Structures are given as C-alpha cells and as structure tokens.
Amino acid sequence: MEKPNLTLYLAAPRGFCAGVDRAIKIVEMAIEKWGAPVYVRHEIVHNKYVVDGLRALGAIFVEELEECPTDRPVIFSAHGVPKSVPEAAQQRQMIYVDATCPLVSKVHIEAERHHANGLQTVMIGHAGHPETIGTMGQLPKGEVLLVETADDVANLAPRDPGKLAYITQTTLSVDDTIATVAALRARFPAIVGPHKKDICYATTNRQEAVKAVSPKVDALLVIGAPNSSNSRRLVEVGTTSGCAYSQLVQRAEDIDWRALQGAKAIGITAGASAPEILINEVIDAFKARYNVTSEIIETAIEDVEFKVPRVLRT
What we know:
Elements: E1 5-12, H1 18-34, E2 38-41, H2 48-57, E3 59-62, E4 74-76, H3 84-91, E5 96-98, H4 102-116, E6 120-124, H5 130-136, E7 144-147, E8 164-168, H6 174-187, H7 201-213, E9 219-223, H8 229-240, E10 246-249, E11 265-270, H9 276-289, E12 291-298, H10 310-313
Parallel strand pairs: 1-11, 1-12, 2-3, 2-4, 4-5, 6-7, 6-8, 9-10, 9-11
Helix pairs in contact: 4-5, 7-8
C-alpha cells in the first residue's frame, strides 16, 4: 500500500536549552566525581526520559532534602529552590551543588534587589510550579505576591501601591505576559520592571519558531512532558497562531494518529527539556507511515553556553 505524502515542518530552535544542558551535565559530572548514588531534589528537568537515564547512572530523585542522607551529595534542580533549602543543607553539613539555571538565578537576584530597595514584588507565574516556589522563597513570606493572569491583577492588595516591582517566571507565554504586565502598569503606574525581560531566550525563541510554523500546518506536535511549563506554552502558542490542532506528546507512542488523519502538513517542535533523540523518534514514526518531505523553519540561532559550578571543574 502506497504511503500518503506529508510535509513535516521542523521548528528551530527546538529541544534542549543551555540551562537544561548544564543541569544534566551537573548530575553526570557529580556522579563521575563522587560516585553513585548522588541525590537530586526534584526532577533535574521536566522530562521522564532524561530523568530515567540519569537514574540508570546512579541518581536518586527525592522530593525533599530530609530524604537525603548527609553523607552523599545532593543537587538542586534547574528550576531553583527557596533559600531555606541550601540553608538546611549547610546546617546538615551536606555537600550540595546548585543546578539552578543562571537565567532563573538572575530573577532571584532581581527579587532580592527590589526587596533591598524597599519594594514589594509581584511575581507573574504559575502557582505550584517549582520555579515559582523557588523564586518566591528567596524573600520573606509576604514580600512576593503571585499573579497568574491579567485578571488576577485586580485582586492584588499590596502593602504600598506606590512601592512595587514585578518579575516573571522564565517559561511563560510571551504574549500572555505582555497582557499581565500591561494590567499591572495600568493599575500601578509606578511599578518597577526588570532591566531585561525575565522570560528566557530559549522560551522566547521556541515560541517565535512555533508562530512561524503554525500557519503552514494542519497540526502541531510538541514533544515534552505534561509538567513542563515551556512545553505546554508551546501548545497554546500553536493554537493561538493559526494551527487548528496542537498536541503535546512525550514519546512517539503517545501520538494520536486518528486526530492527524488527512493532514498534509504537520509541524514538530520540542520543549526546552526534551532531548533530540525523542524528536528523531517522532520523525521516524512519521516516516514509517508517510512519504515524508522535511523542511526546517529557523527563526533564531542559539549559541548560549553556561559553565558548570567550579566544584565540578576542579
């Protein structure tokens, strides 16, 4: 039976960002330096394939620091942790390595600077997300107010409306955040913003690539984990950018082939914590069913690289 023709539009950039790449290297180098097991507080990045691979090397993933023995190293995830976590590790005299993405650390520093200047901070982010918890945990309780959407701004009750600043989670939708910032500025004209945008370059670049691909395709597949904020935002961006159907898949086995019946052109991208091997797996699955022609839609070139902590380089 002859295969139907299909054009795959591959968004670029896609997949791993520099912060994720650095975090994975940190776990691998820690195991190499100190031997197994090495403990990791929370998933190092939000991707089951990556986590399972590191677990096979000797990483043990836990939810809280109390689950770690004091005689083994512990690594904090790329999403960042509240200040209380490294303080507790120091009190227990543990060896710890902070794998927080440097762009998340930049937001932490901003929050501390605002606090030092006497400003209460509004964080635009998703409640319960590890990055939001970690960022809010940089300051004393009550010093960071959380809003998720522009509608939430109306319910804010700051200590002093004239002394406010705002920061954002790094993996949000660029377009949604613009609306929330506009609402904040409309209600609090004196609010102080970041010197540079908090949403990270990788999040922005992947969303821009999806915007370029979406009008060309009948469906968009985003390879990523359901608990990955940046991956879920890519699905939303695809929908709002002209794509009739957007689907989040972790692996090729998750593809809903019936939903794709009749499609002539399909877009493929991947969240910042999805490895290239999973992208290739999905492409191969299409090649098994279709006569595939591929086209890369590139909107940016990334050459960012972050160094691992000095303790792992010596």
